[in-house]
Q: What sequence folds into this?
């Protein structure tokens, strides 16, 4: 007499274990929608407004300074985003890199890094003046977890060229 096997349930993972079933559909992988989205390439194209008036600086015990500057904008494929641009310097004001930008969206967050130690050549497009740097994703979470992306970031200067007015990500 054959013995019926029941579906096994693992309460820690909250999913049915189908490994003992002998139906043709028992071994079909049904991916989670979030996993499917994470496998799409992450496109970091768009412009983020730098809110310089809301920046904050903190000093550490060694005299170094960390400056955080809020940013917000729209990125292609991700939608509206907001976050913080973090810059660090030592007690003499020398750059400590890399700069990081942590960006939050409705379905996840990620952090990109770039070095602002050497400004490189000035680029001009019409009235726009900017410096361009290599950037890459160093961490991510949510639906966009495990995404990798590299590209460039433009630090677009204000009309007076005294501070950065916006960041353009080219992914």
A:
């Amino acid at each position: 007499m054959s013995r019926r096997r029941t579906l096994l349930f693992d309460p820690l993972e909250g999913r049915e274990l189908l490994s003992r079933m002998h139906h043709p559909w028992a071994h079909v992988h049904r991916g989670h929608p979030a996993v499917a989205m994470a496998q799409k390439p992450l496109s970091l194209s768009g412009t983020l407004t730098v809110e310089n008036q809301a920046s904050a600086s903190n000093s550490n015990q060694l005299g170094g300074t960390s400056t955080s500057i809020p940013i917000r904008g729209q990125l292609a494929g991700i939608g509206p985003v907001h976050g913080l641009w973090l810059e660090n310097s030592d007690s003499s004001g020398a750059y400590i890199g890399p700069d990081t930008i942590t960006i939050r969206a409705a379905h996840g967050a990620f952090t990109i890094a770039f070095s602002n130690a050497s400004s490189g050549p000035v680029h001009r497009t019409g009235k726009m003046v900017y410096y361009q740097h290599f950037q890459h994703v160093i961490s991510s979470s949510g639906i966009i977890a495990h995404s990798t992306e590299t590209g460039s970031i433009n630090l677009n200067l204000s009309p007076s060229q005294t501070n950065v007015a916006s960041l353009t990500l080219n992914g």
About this structure: The two ends are 63 Å apart (CA to CA). Helices lie at 33-38. Confidence is low (pLDDT under 50) at residues 12-17, 20-39.
